[in-house]
Amino acid sequence: MRILTAKEIKEVEVKAFASYTTEGELMFKAGEACFKKIVSFIENPRSKSFCVVCGNGKNAGDGFVIAKLLHNYGCKAQIVLADQQPSIEEPLLYFNQALESGVAICNFDECDFDCDVIVDCIFGIGFHGEPRTPFDKVFDRINQSSKVVISVDTPSGTDATTGQVVSAVKADYTIAISTLKFAHVLPPSNEYCGKTCVVNIGIPESCYEDSYVNTITKKQVKSFFVKRKINAHKGSCGHQLNVCGSYLMPGAAVICAKAGLKTGAGLVKCVFPKSIYNTLTSHLVQPVFKPVCENQEKTLSIGCLSDLLEELKWADSVAIGCGLGNNDDTQVLVSQVLKSSEVPVVLDADGINCAVSFIDIIKDRKAPLVITPHPAEMARLTGKTVAEIQQDRIGTAKAFAKDNGVIVVLKGANTVVTDGEMVFVNTTGNSGMAMGGTGDMLTGMIASFIAQGISPFNASLAGVYIHGMCGDLCAREISQRGMTVEDMLYLLGALMSEFE
């Protein structure tokens, strides 16, 4: 599914106006589609009352259409003017039609919001910056109302292109018109959207370009998986080498290994410091174990380098960094793996932290590289602040991927996956996954898919999507607060049946 900026969707609409429809017709179709979606959200809508809050721009036109259709449907509906009556031709037309149909009209100052549902049609995609009076007061009143709030296209006060918010309506539902906008997927505006859906208003495909940012879809991910051959064996289903774990973080190695096994890797081999042997073998029975020498910090020692380089010859993919620790020894080991590996590497956590000290090695490598930073790790890689990363997640990830020839999986709500050209945003997952270990699980999944023959970019898309889907399933079965990574791993194997 496409994700467009305000400028991009306006360009699409201009093309539609030139060849297929008028602005007034498209406005009516948008209002009609939103009306149908609104009555589907609300139980027994004819018994409910609606306040459709409108500004005086084009988004208000959708609201006037919605109000008229709600009234004709048998709902109690009134239009609340946030500022003044419309003066633009198309919205004014639908405002007058709503009046003629008998829809009640009141000004914001006169409205007590004595209703069941508030429909937000104050601002559309053209909004940016800070709302002026009286709109800031309107936003506050809506947010303090405790009513069900449904925003049309984007919650008023959010920047459709950047996702920035100073003050905005906080919606329970957002109905995106034609396509998603960046306000729906980027922080902080994504927190204001509630449950987001998209309605098609009939703009032809020929009006769109091919270069937009997209969401990852289940259909797309399913296409990456081929049916296993009847004569498949462990050697033909991929060799995954995990270089993970330390005395202080043995669980990271366990989680990464389990994720690889639960997603179909034929053989998983774990390289780890010998002091965590008992921990790993008490939680894992299926992998091949390769305990190696360690340093005083009980992380991998530089003395294991020759063994590690030898194991690279066995692997079809390498996952390195989960719980690894960051010191002189691990920095050398990470640099040598990146320099020597001839199979794709997935670099996570302390692997990324180690690479900060020799960032140029990322370019000086033989094989594809996937890096999976969270915002703080991305800040270390780029020299930016976390706030700067979060303000431009897509731009930062895309630029780093392009400059270094890597695939970036920038984690967080609505994880970004890019190779510097293509950009995808994930829409699965939930805040219950905000806990230690979920990143280790994702690393193991991506490395597993690569080992099984999926391209590193597609493996990243699949890993991110299925990882979030597993989190959503777990939240439904248990709860967001009560779920653990072990719960997710338990469900992961069964979830993979949807992709076979």
Explain how this protein is built.
It is built from 17 helices and 19 strands. With 500 residues, the protein is an alpha/beta fold. The strands form two sheets. It has a twelve-stranded mixed β-sheet, with helices on both faces. It has a seven-stranded parallel β-sheet with strand order 4-3-2-5-6-7-9, covered by helices on one side. β5, α5 and β6 form a beta-alpha-beta unit. α3 packs parallel to α4, α9 runs parallel beside α10 and α16 packs across α17. The longest helix has 22 residues.
Question: How would you summarize what this structure contains?
Answer:
With 500 residues, this protein is an alpha/beta fold.
Strand content: 15-25%
Whole-Å distance between the termini?
23 Å
- What class would the helix/strand composition place it in? alpha/beta
Mean pLDDT: 96
Lay out the secondary structure.
Blueprint lengths: L1 E3 L1 H14 L3 H19 L7 E6 L3 H16 L2 E6 L7 H12 L3 E4 L9 E5 L13 H9 L4 E5 L20 E5 L2 E2 L13 E5 L13 E3 L2 H5 L16 E5 L6 H13 L4 E7 L3 H7 L4 E5 L12 H8 L4 E4 L7 H13 L4 E3 L2 H6 L13 E3 L3 H8 L3 H6 L1 H12 L2 E4 L5 E3 L4 E3 L12 H14 L4 H22 L7 H11 L5
Parallel strand pairs: 1-8, 2-3, 2-5, 3-4, 5-6, 6-7, 7-9, 10-19, 11-12, 11-14, 12-13, 14-15, 15-16, 16-17
Antiparallel strand pairs: 1-10, 17-18, 18-19
Helix pairs in contact: 2-3, 3-4, 7-15, 7-17, 9-10, 15-16, 16-17
Labels describing this entry:
39% helix, twelve-stranded mixed sheet, 17 helices, elongated, 500 residues, alpha/beta
